[in-house]
Amino acid sequence: MRYALLACVLAVAGIVAWYAVSAPDENTLVVYCAHDLVFSEPILKDFEKETGIRVVIVGDTEATKSLGLVQQILREGANSRCDVFWNNQVLGTVQLQRAGFLEPYQGPGYERIPESFKDPDGMWTGFAGRMRVWIVNTEKMPATPDAIDAALAASDLSPMAIAMPMFGTTLSHYSLLWAQMGGDALKVQHRDMVERGCQVVSGNATVKNLVAEGLCSFGMTDTDDYFVAHDAKLPVAQLPIRVNGQTICIPNSVAIVRGSDNLEAAQKLVDYLLSEQVELQLSASEARQIPLGPVTAGELSPEVQQLAEWARETADMTNLGQAQEECLTWLKAEYAP
Amino acid sequence: MPDVAEGGVRSVTFAAACGWSLLRSTIVALLGLWGAVHLARLAPQQRSRMRFAAWALILSPCLSPGLIVGYGYRNYSLSLIHYPWWNEALYAAILIGQAAPVGALLLYLAPPPVVSPSAVHCWRMGAAFTGQSSISRWLGALSMELRGPKQAWLPAAAVIFLIAFQESEVAALMQVRGWPEWLYTRYAGLVDLTATRMRMLVLVAIQALVIVPVVAWLWRSLATGRRAARDSTRPVSNGWWVWPWVLFIVVTVIPCGVVLRGAWQGLASLGQQPSFWRELAHGLAFAMTSGAIACTMAGGLIRRIDSPQHATIPHGSSFVGAWRPVLMGALLLPGLCGSMTLALLVDDLFQQSWLQWAYDSPVRILTALTLSLFPRAVLVQTCIPYNRRTAELHAADLLRQGTTVQRHIARELEWRLRGRPRFWAYVLVCSWGYLDLMIATISAPPGMEPVVKRLYNFMHFGHIAGLSAMVCVTVATPLLLAMAFLAVRRWRTEWTSA
Fold first, then answer.
1. Cα separation of B364 and B450, whole Å?
2. N or C, fewer C-beta in 10 Å, chain B?
3. Are residues A259 and A114 in the same domain?
């Protein structure tokens, strides 16, 4: 028993020492990051190297992309340790803005991003977007708008997959539909799709897997997930999803959380993330994210240039806060009553 | 309300999700108990040298980490998206495979029955002449059986039920419906947690009802005959050996095979991921600390119940004596409620103003992990047979008072009889904490996230060589550390004896 108690004391002492070394101190930036860590972590580490400011990253779980971190900040309230929120979309950030959790900042990074991708008061700024696309298994059906329309009109929609609309970019997509079609029409459409057998799965990556493996013929996902299958040389093709003729480009967004203990460092990180260098880095990554600010000509791959063209036709995703709230209330009642 | 797609995420109420989990767990408990009864009879039939190998085979499915099992079956489960019932059946089969061996172990370790088989036989003969109605005779026989040879069936079924009801990692990766998916969706998506808390209490109440026989069994096992494992049981046909092999292949071999595929190619990429190694270290630090606390608490509890002072106090003869099972139940209850419920409750607790100072510190995750591991530590330490070898231990005590060489032999004997079993019990308990996904996801402080969260996130992208390598390294690390400790100890022993 003596040895066991000694082991306990040593273990607790060890963890205290470990915490003393690893825990965020006053000069550390705590970044809540909903973007895939595979892509975001190297960028944040580069920032650490360049500035000497230590960054602690808190990631989200894949199944609840971004919404989990938004709710965590809301739950933690004034006690949140989050300094900077790097969201992989805009809507959750707008929710934080509406709840009064964000600190305005308009630095050099803010200035280089077009008006349509940032908050006029500087509460948040968008950067590096990705498109909502149809992913099509080319061995199952042709990747054309007509083929997709025909498949959508069929009585059996079981070959189609979508991610659960309560989370991630599918929520942004649904919020746009809510704003444009009206809530009642969206509810009817969604229920009709589900009744016809459309597969509602846990995330966009799962949609990609189902289509790429030929278990479903087509589905809605994001360009970053599509390119994972494309790079693996699986039989897939993509088409932009259009709502009333407009495409859906969903930017990442970055914001400083009100009450940050380290405002100056937080502002440095925001400017860093909004820089041309980071946008190009994200466009060159496997996710092929689309730079939203001006970048040097010839730096983009043909694939990203194509995406950038689609992104120019995007619907305005910055003004959907009210629609998102209403849509989310309905989805919560639908999926977690 | 539209209830369903054919597969994937469905829109269900809490009652439906909970009811579904209850139904599945009940079926798993009944089938699992049937399997456990036979599994428990298989190992004791072996010669003592083969018995250890037999138990290793039988118990390997329940020691296979849920994360690996879920990852192994994730793609196959996706291929069943148009056949959700087959997916459900596969998941239930995996649950039986993981839970039945635990039931078998409990049946094997059960203390001798209060009513002997001869007494039950006599009662049956007597009842035949009393002219009782068939229903009352049947109820009487059932009551006698449950106090007699089948007295461990109820706690074994309860444990199998609890394992099935609480399971959430394999369910998440196989996209199976149930209360964990419902609760986590609500937790991640809602700010107003009042309604969610109420539902969590319903879940705790359901599990508390089932926990009663388990605590009663543990109490009786610890207090009376916990080391009276029966060596003579009704023999079973050797044909039953098919089942442990099938379970071993389905729950252990296939998922491990899937994980190992491509792991070698992925190993090179791990060098470029410092965060992976840091998170690995975080996971180990949390698991080793909480494991040490849980094992010490469990050891203290068992020692207290075992103490001669306690043995002389008849149960219920004093206030303290009467309340001991209740106290033990209260200590075991949080851990027996499952990682997810526990992590959510601890998270809630640390949001209270008087505990907010510790919210961002390791205290939150250590509290959750320790409470989660405590019942398992009690169970594992109950299974350790070291105190049965009283003659050897007495010899070690005598040798300790002798010459330097004799003292050295005494230390080695003590290590082999007591230290080594305790060490492996500690490694096992720590491994459970190290691979606990839900607590890692919900309770980790910023910047100190354990590695399992990263693995779980990557698993959603499908099978990647780098991920397979990460899973292999993650699972192998505690074993390698344990082996390294033993090697160092052995080297030190040889060096001092030389």
1. 13
2. C
3. yes
Q: How far is B158 from chain A (nearest CA, A)?
A: 28
Query: In this complex, is the C-beta atom of A153 within 8 Å of any C-beta atom belonging to chain B?
Result: no
Q: Find the residue in B nearest to A215 (Cα).
A: B79
Contact B457 A62 (CB under 8 A): yes
The verdict on A161 touching B (C-beta cutoff 8 Å) is: yes
Write the CATH number for A203. Answer: 3.40.190.10
B212: confidence class by pLDDT, cuts 50, 70, 90: confident
Regarding whether A119 and A55 lie in a shared domain, the answer is yes
Question: Is the same domain home to A9 and A105?
Answer: yes
A197 and A327 both lie in a single domain: yes
Mean pLDDT of chain A: 87
Whether A219 and A169 map to the same domain: the answer is yes
Whether residue A53 lies inside any domain: the answer is: yes
For B140-178, how does the pLDDT look when each residue is reduced to its tens digit (9 = 90+)? Answer: 777 777 777 777 888 889 889 988 998 888 888 888 888
Cα radius of gyration (chain B): 24
B362 to chain A: closest CA residue: A19
**pTM over the 0.95 mark:** no
Chain B hits for A259, CB-CB cut-off 8 Å, are none
A322 interfacial to chain B (CB closer than 8 Å)? no
Q: Which residue of B has its CA nearest to A331?
A: B11
Are A189 and A325 in the same domain? yes
Chain A residues 17-36 with CB within 8 Å of chain B: 18-19, 22-24, 28, 30
Is there a domain that residue A234 lies in?
A: yes
For chain A, what is the domain count?
2
A100: domain range? 2-128+251-301
Instruction: Give the pLDDT confidence of A292-334 residue by residue, as tens digits.
Output: 988 887 778 888 999 999 988 888 887 787 888 889 888 888 7
Domain contains A314: no
